[in-house]
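User: Predict the complex.
Assistant: Input components as received:
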Amino acid sequence: MEKLTALILAAGQGTRMKSKYPKVLHPLLGEPMLRYVTDAARAAGAERIAVVIGFEGERVQAAMGPELEYIWQREQLGTGHAVLMAREFLAKATGELLVLYGDTPLIKPETLCELIELQRATGAAGAILTTRMQDPAGYGRIIRNTGNEISGIVEHKDASSGERIIDEVNTGIYCFTIAALREALAELTPQNAQGEYYLTDVFAAFIGNGLKVAGLLTGDAEAVMGPNDRAQLARTEAFLREAINQRWMAEGVSIPDPATAYIGPHVRIGRDTTVFPGTFIFGKTVIGSDCVIGPQSRIVDSTIGDNTEVQYSQVFQAELGPQNNIGPYSFVRQGTVTAARVKIGGFVEVKNVRIAEESKVPHLSYMGDAEVGRDVNIGAGTITCNYDGVSKHRTIIEDEVFIGSNTNLVAPVTVRAGATVAAGSTITKEVPAKALGIARARQENLTEWVSPKDRAGK
Amino acid sequence: MEKLTALILAAGQGTRMKSKYPKVLHPLLGEPMLRYVTDAARAAGAERIAVVIGFEGERVQAAMGPELEYIWQREQLGTGHAVLMAREFLAKATGELLVLYGDTPLIKPETLCELIELQRATGAAGAILTTRMQDPAGYGRIIRNTGNEISGIVEHKDASSGERIIDEVNTGIYCFTIAALREALAELTPQNAQGEYYLTDVFAAFIGNGLKVAGLLTGDAEAVMGPNDRAQLARTEAFLREAINQRWMAEGVSIPDPATAYIGPHVRIGRDTTVFPGTFIFGKTVIGSDCVIGPQSRIVDSTIGDNTEVQYSQVFQAELGPQNNIGPYSFVRQGTVTAARVKIGGFVEVKNVRIAEESKVPHLSYMGDAEVGRDVNIGAGTITCNYDGVSKHRTIIEDEVFIGSNTNLVAPVTVRAGATVAAGSTITKEVPAKALGIARARQENLTEWVSPKDRAGK
Amino acid sequence: MEKLTALILAAGQGTRMKSKYPKVLHPLLGEPMLRYVTDAARAAGAERIAVVIGFEGERVQAAMGPELEYIWQREQLGTGHAVLMAREFLAKATGELLVLYGDTPLIKPETLCELIELQRATGAAGAILTTRMQDPAGYGRIIRNTGNEISGIVEHKDASSGERIIDEVNTGIYCFTIAALREALAELTPQNAQGEYYLTDVFAAFIGNGLKVAGLLTGDAEAVMGPNDRAQLARTEAFLREAINQRWMAEGVSIPDPATAYIGPHVRIGRDTTVFPGTFIFGKTVIGSDCVIGPQSRIVDSTIGDNTEVQYSQVFQAELGPQNNIGPYSFVRQGTVTAARVKIGGFVEVKNVRIAEESKVPHLSYMGDAEVGRDVNIGAGTITCNYDGVSKHRTIIEDEVFIGSNTNLVAPVTVRAGATVAAGSTITKEVPAKALGIARARQENLTEWVSPKDRAGK
C-alpha cells in the first residue's frame, strides 16, 4: 500500500464565530473541532498529518500537540497559497495527499477512504469530493463532460447562468498524487483581482496537461459542511452527541436521556453500564462494565473499574478500581488511584492519593498527597495538612487504621498499621502500630456559664 | 364481578439489549419495565398476577418482590410453553386470564379493560388485542371471515401472499376464559420445525371447537410494542417522561423544562410545586404543595412537606416536614425525619436523624444516628462520631442547644437542653442543661516563630 | 415626541393554571411573566406603566415593585371595566395609551412601536393589533369595509356565519389617543347578558363618532398569545430560552447545549464565554468575557469578571473579580466581593466576605462576615464562628496570613498580616503580625490502648 499524507487547512479565523480564538479550536464534546478532522485523516490511513496554521497558530500548536506537523501561512492568500506553504513539507513526501479543512468535524473516514480508493483506482492526478446542494449559490460548480468526467471547476462568480444551474459543488476536499500536485503547484499564480491563489487552478492544470481528474459524489452534504457560527457549532455538537450515544447504546450501554449525556469521541464504555443524565465523559476515559455513571457527573481522562458508581461527582485524571462507590458530591483529582471496593463519599476531595482495598473516606474530608492502606476508615472532617505554605508533604496511613473525625494529619506524618487516631486530634508525629494517637483537651462543663443568649435576655 | 388473573410472560433475555440482565428489569424512570405492566394489570382489575420467569429469573423475583407469583419456564419453547408452565397456577383460578408481556411498558389499563369487557360481553373463549401496522412483515396476521369475526391467526412465515397483505396483526395480548383455556392447553403440541408451543394454536382449537374468539383493534400500536434495544429503551423513557410530566402540569405543577424532569410513575406532587430542571423524583415519593424541588436534585422514596425547598440535593427514604430548606448540596439519607422549618444547608449529610422544629444544620456537618431537639443550632463542621470502628451509637441533642463549629460529638453522648458546646470541642460525656461544654487548649501566640515561608526565604 | 403611557391588564386568576398565585406572576427564566410585558412596554417608549391588578394583587405589587403604578380592579367585569378603573390614572395623562395584557410575555417591542407609529401616522383614535388565526373560533373578528378600513369588531358569539369565516382576529392589544379614549369611556355601559364592560365597545363609539380606527396586522400570532396552562407555560419558556440563547451565540458566546442553558432576559454575557449545560443565569447578572460558566451552576444577580470560572456552583448577589476559580461545589452568597485571581474551591460556603487578590479558600470551609487580605491561604475545614446564637460578628484576616486546617476563628477576631494559625486551633483573640497562633493539645500516643475493635475481638 502506498503512503498517505494529509494536509489540513486551519489558518483561518472564522470571523462569524466572533471569537479571539481560532475557529478550529472551538471544542465539541471536550475536543477541539480540528481533532475530529485529524482523527478522520488518521483513520483513513494518513501516516503524516500537517496542519496549515495562521490566525493564532501558536494556540493551535499548543492545543493539538507534537503528534502533528505545523506549517505557517502568515498571510491568507487563498487555499492554493495554503498548499504552496506546504511545498517544503511535500518535497519529502511520496504517494497521495489528502487535503482537508480543519473546520469540517463531521467528515467521515469512510468517505475519505472512498476518495483515496477512487483516486488510486482511476490513476487520477487528483480526485475531488463533491456533493449536491439544494441551494448551490456561492459554491464552485463541478463541470462534467459528456462522458461524465470532470472537465473543470467554476467558481460561482465566474459561472455562466447555465453553469449556475448545476447543483454538484466542490467540497474543497481532495486527494492528490503528490508528484502531480508538486508540478502543478510550481505553476500556480494569483490570476484574479484579489491576488489570491486558488487550489482549484491545479485541476485546470491537470486537465490542460491531459491528466485525469476523478470526482466522488457524496450524498452526505452535512458531513462536509463545517459550522460557521456558534449556533451551528451547537447543532454540530448535538449531531455528534446523538451519533456517539447511539453507538454506545447499540453496544449495550444504557443512556436514559441521550440528549443530556455528553460523551467525547475517544471514550470507551463497557456493557451494562448506565450513563445517567447531565453527565460529561470526556478525554481518553475508559469506563468498565456494570458501572453507574451520573447523574450530573464529569469524568475526564480517567479509568473506572467494573461495577463502580460515580454519582454527582467530578473525576479528573484518576484511576478508580472496581466496585468503588464515589459521591454524591465528591471531587476526585489527578493522581488518585484506588483499589477495589473503595468508598469516597459525600463532600470529599482527594488528590494524588493511593487508596487500597476496602478503605473508606465517607464524608467531608480532604486527602491530598497520601497513601492509604487497606481497611482504613477515615472519619468525617479529616484533613491532610499537606501544604505548609511553601511545599507539599506526604501522609502515610497504613492498613486497618481508624482515623477519628475532625482530625488533622500534619504531613509529613505516618499512622502505622492498626492504629487509631482520636477524634479532634491534630497529629504531627508518627502514631505507632496499634496505638491510640490523641491530641485533645479534656472536656469541662461550666455550669455557671452565661450564654450570649442569656446575656441578651432572650 | 368475575375474578381477573394476569399472567405476564417475562422469561426472555432480549438479546438485542446486549445485556446480562433480563430485559424486563431494564429501568424506566427508576422502575423496572415489568413494573409498568404489573401496574397496568392491577389497574385493569387483576387480583392475582403471576410472572413467567426464565432468563436470570432470580433477579426478576428479587427486583419485583413477593407481591407477585412466579412461574419458572426453564426452557424457552414458545409462548404456548410459557402458559403451559402456568397450568398448576391456573388450576386454582376461575374467571378470566389476561396474558401480557413483561416488555410492553406502555400498555394502558384502559385498553386492557376494553379487552376484558369485550371478552365478557361476547362470551368469547378468548379475545385478542390486535393493531394495524404499516409494515406488518414478521407479525402474525388476523384472519377475519365475511362476518368480520376472527377465523384464525396466521404466522408471517406460514402466510400466503394474499394473507401477507393484511395489516391487522396479533399483539400477543389476550384475555381468556380460564376454563376454556385450560381445556385447549391440554391439547397443545409443538407441531412445528422448532418444536415450540405456540399460544396462537389455542385459538385454532377454540374455533375448531365452535367457541367464539373476539378481537379488539387498538389504534395505539406504540403502546403494544416494547423496546427491543437500548435506543428504543431511551425513546420509551422519553415518551413516559413526557406523558407523566404533562399529567402533573395539568394538575397545577410547574415544570419549566419537562425534557429534563425525571418523575417516576408512582410519585405524587401537590399543586403550585415547581420541579426545576435536572431533577429526579423516583420511587414512592410524595411531595406537598408549594414546594421548590431542584434544580438538579434527586428524591427517592421520600415524603416532602408543603412549602419545603430541596435544591441541588439528594434525599433518600426520608420524611421532611413543611417549610424545610434543604441544600444546596445536602445529602439526606434513610431514616431522616424532620419537623417544620428545619434547615439542612450546604455540604451537610444526615442519616437516621430526627430533627425537631426550627433547628438548623446550616453547613459542612455530618449528623448520623442522632436526635436533635427544637431550636437547636449546629455549627459548621460539627460531626457526630457515631461509629467506633465496630458499632454505631446515638447522639442526643436536646432543645435549644447551641453547638459550636468543628465540634465532635463522640456517641453515645447527650447534650442537655439549653447547653452550649464551645467551638472546636470534642465532647465525650454528657453536657448538663444550660452548661457550657468545652474541650479546648488555650490559645498561645508565638511571636518568635519562624514560618516555613520565612525559612524558605520567600 | 408625544408621551406614551401603558396600561397592563393583570387582574385575572388564570384558572387553567390551577394555581393560588396570579397568572402574571408565574415565572419564565426567573422573571414573572408580567416583567416581559412591562419590559416590552418600556422598550416601546412607555414612560409611565400602570398595572391593573385584582386576584392576589398584593402579590403582584410585591413582586413587581414600586417602579410601576397599580390600579385595583376588585371585581372582574370585563376589559372595559379594567380600563374604567384607570380613569383617575388617565385623567392626568396625555398622548397615547398602550393597552396590553400581563400574560402575553412574548409580545415584541418592535410590534408595539409599529402599532404606535400607525396610530400616530393615521391620526386614529385607536389602533388595534390584529392577527390571522387558522382556527379563529372564540376570537373577536375584525370587520373591514371595502376601503379595507376597520369598521367594527364582532365577538365570536355575536358573529354571523359570514363573519365567522373571517380569520383576522382582535388580539386585544391597542394604542389609543388618551383624549379620545377618555370620552368614549365616559359612555361605556354593560350592554350584555353578563353585565360586563367590553373595551371593544369603545371602537364602536369611535366609528359612530366618525373617528378613525387603524388596524395593524401582525404575522406573529404566537407573540400575542399568552400561555393558559402550565404545559403552555413550559413551551413559552422553551421559546424564550431558544431566542435568548440564539442571541448570545450570535454575540460570540458558546452554548454547547442551548436546550439546557437557562439564561434570563436581563443577563449580559461577554464574548468567548462558554455557558455549559444545566446552568441557570438569572436576574441582573453580568458575566465578563472568556469565562467558563457551568456545567450545572446557578448565578443570580451577580457580576463575574473576565476569565473567571464557575463550575458546579451557586453564586447569589456576589461580585467576583477576574481570573477567579470557583467550584466545583461552592456556595457563594450575598455580599461576597472578590478581587483578581481568588480561588473558592470544593465544598466552600462564603457569605458577606471580601477577599483580596490571590487569596485561596480551597476546600471545605465556611467564611461568613469576614475580610480576607491578599495572598491568604485558608486551610481546609476553616470556619469563621460568626454567630454566637444572638448576633453576627466579623473576622479580619490580613495579608499573607496562613490559616491551618480545621481551624475556628471565633469572631470578632483579627489575624494580623503574615501570621500563621496552627491547624486544629480555635482562635478567640487576635494573632499578632507574623506570629504563630496555636491552641492545641500536645499529641500523646497510647500504645497500651485497646481499641473497640480489639475489644470486640475482631
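Chain A touches chain C through 66 residues (CB under 8 Å).
Let me know if you want any component modeled separately.
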